[in-house]
Amino acid sequence: RDTSVTGVQTCALPISLIAGVNVVSAFGLGYWHGRVATLLLMTLLGTAATFTGPGYSALVPSFVPSEELQKVNGLIQTWTASASMAGPVLGGFLVAATGTSWPLYIDAMSFGLLALGTITLHHDRIPAADAHLKEQRDTWAGVRLLWGDKLLRAVTIVIIFFILSLMMVNVTEVFFIRQTLHASTWMYGVCGGVFGIGIDRKSTRLN
Question: Of 29, 73, 85, 180, which is most buried by a Cβ count within 10 Å?
Fold first, then answer.
């Protein structure tokens, strides 16, 4: 029991520290508006974000019995999709109402609550002794399957390049919507929300 709790706390600590980096980055973006500072802080925020998502996903099996894991992951994805739809709209409203700084300060506070919540995580479920090893074997089996099959390897590479190109579009769409189309910050948020709804509906149809 003590070993399992210690393992969770050991995993939660670095995730909380990364969430702390998000706090500093978001607060800094709201306070400093220079190009160099913005570029550095956005890089720091984006880098930290790439670790927090997988980190929290790795914590879920430590709190949820294996028979409930699929259901819980489904709920997490549902709430994540809902947030991706509501977030841009709320962000656009806040920027239109208060400017660019306060939404980032609120974002920093949300990251702070996330860090505090993570560091205080406890659980009373004792995982199986070989659960961690089984999870590692399953992960590497998935990697070998992806790169061992020619078709899956090709599809994976295409998806990687698609995501990279999509990230570049995400950067340019700000200038296209705000400057070329002369849309307000509120309307830009609405566009982001509509994009999230489209992704959610498409994934629903595919499933």
Answer: 29
